[in-house]
Each structure stands twice: as C-alpha cells, then as structure tokens.
C-alpha cells in the first residue's frame, strides 16, 4: 500500500521539503561510503541507542556519552539502506508540500523537528534498555502524515496496491489512510512490546509518538499563528485518471 498522489493544495515550490530530502540523501550517500570504523563512529554518536540513557555506566564503557541528547534529533537524518530512505523520502514528498503550504516554512521545520524528537522519546519509553541503534525519518514523517490528515481530512490519497503483480490504484480519504496506518502501528507496536525476542526491528512506537505530535500540532497550528503564506496549486479535490493498459 504505497501512496502515489494526493489532491490537497501543495506548495508550488516546497523548498523545505526539497532541502530535507536533499540533506537526507547527502548524508546517506556519505554514510554508505564510510569504512566500517567510520560507520560505527557515526552510529554511536548520532543514532538513538536507548541503552545510552538507561544504563549510563555500561554506555560509557561502550564509548557512548550518556549526557548527549543530540541523538534524539540526529537519528532522524540517518538511514539504513536504499529502500529505507527511498520509502521515507517518497512519503515526505507526497504529504510534505501540502503541510509546508499550510503551516509555512518555519512552521513546517518546527513540525518536522518536533515530530522527530517526539518519535525518539516514544521509542525510548517503549525500548528503554535496548542496545540496538534506531535511525530513520519515519517518526518525523508520521508527524507530517497526521498533520496532513487533520488539516485535509477529505483530501484524496491514491494508493498503489499490488495484487499478484497487477497494480491497483485505490483512492481513499486522507483521514481513512492516516487512521488505518496509525492502527497498524498500534497493533504492531503492542505486539512488539510483548514479544520475547527483539521484536520486528521496526520502530513502531517512534511512528506512534511522531503521529500524535503531528495531530496535536496541526490542531493548534492556527492558534500558533501558522497560516498559509505560500503559493499553492489549485485544489479541485478530484482524483486524477489513471491510464489503463
């Protein structure tokens, strides 16, 4: 289930979305070119490792600084593979421009960074003693998805659903998409909490934390003085025709 198009008014020139996507790809390309010791250095300093805070003595013995809180933010700019970064940045490209248009550039930056930190905090609470590095922008993007659904609940999101190698294009409301997506995170996250192993390896609770922050942020965006101040394309609310083959 991959979102490929939406009908909400998008910023014609979403420069902050462009900048975040570009920065993430630059960091990723730099990381994949690092030798193993260099990659280890990056992960131990900038990825989110809950053990850093839950077991400070053990963390210091492993070379981690328990007094550094930058990883709560910096982990959102690291990715573990091509599929990881492509899916995250594609989602940002689909949902980000509409929120940049609605909240303005400064508001979008605040939402994205706050979503990243909220996602990290939720992941810490759910995985307090984990030694596994967590990284990726999905928590921040979850905040964008939630803000999108709150701001444009009736906008259409066109989903690509492969069925036996045949692509199906299914339009759903933004509210339905976000609610269904959030329900999946809750179910999977709850299952991981009670798993006897290390779980699925997906930071479900980071997604949940980012999503909740995004919904609250969007609800109070107007009160915060974050109004539309960017030129947008016209919103017709219509679904584009998908050519048949």
From TrEMBL:
Residues crossing the lipid bilayer are: 15-33, 76-95, 107-126, 132-150, 157-184, 204-226
**What range(s) does the Peptidase S54 rhomboid domain occupy?**
67-220
Write down the membrane topology. Multi-pass membrane protein
Question: What family name appears in the similarity comment?
Answer: Belongs to the peptidase S54 family.
GO CC annotation:
membrane
User: Keyword set for this entry?
Assistant: Hydrolase, Membrane, Plasmid, Protease, Transmembrane, Transmembrane helix
Name of the protein: Rhomboid family serine protease
Compartments annotated for it: namely: Membrane
Q: Which GO terms describe its molecular function?
A: serine-type endopeptidase activity
The record's InterPro entries line, in alphabetical order, gives:
Peptidase_S54_rhomboid_dom, Rhomboid-like_sf, Rhomboid_protease_S54
Source organism of this protein record: Sinorhizobium sojae CCBAU 05684
Q: Taxonomic lineage per UniProt?
A: Bacteria, Pseudomonadati, Pseudomonadota, Alphaproteobacteria, Hyphomicrobiales
In terms of one coarse class, where is the protein primarily found? membrane
| One GO biological process term | proteolysis
């Amino acid at each position: 289930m991959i979102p490929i198009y939406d009908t909400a008014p998008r910023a014609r020139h979403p420069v902050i979305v462009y900048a975040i996507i570009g920065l993430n790809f630059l960091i990723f390309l730099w990381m994949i070119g690092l030798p193993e010791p260099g990659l280890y250095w990056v992960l131990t300093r900038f990825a989110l490792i809950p053990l850093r805070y839950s077991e400070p003595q053990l963390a210091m013995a492993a070379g981690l600084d328990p007094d550094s809180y930058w990883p709560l933010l910096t982990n959102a700019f690291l990715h573990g593979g091509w599929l990881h970064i492509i899916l995250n940045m594609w989602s940002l490209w689909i949902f980000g421009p509409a929120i940049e248009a609605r909240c303005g550039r400064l508001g979008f930056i605040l939402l994205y960074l706050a979503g990243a930190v909220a996602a990290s905090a939720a992941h810490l609470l759910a995985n307090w003693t984990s030694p596994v590095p967590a990284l990726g922008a999905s928590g921040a993007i979850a905040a964008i998805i939630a803000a999108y659904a709150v701001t444009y609940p009736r906008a259409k999101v066109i989903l690509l659903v492969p069925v036996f190698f045949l692509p199906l294009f299914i339009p759903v409301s933004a509210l339905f998409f976000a609610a269904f997506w959030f329900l999946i995170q809750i179910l999977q996250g709850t299952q991981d909490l009670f798993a006897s192993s290390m779980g699925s390896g997906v930071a479900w609770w980071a997604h949940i934390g980012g999503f909740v922050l995004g919904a609250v942020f969007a609800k109070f965006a107007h009160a915060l003085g974050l109004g539309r101040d960017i030129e947008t394309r016209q919103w017709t609310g219509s679904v584009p025709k998908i050519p048949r083959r």
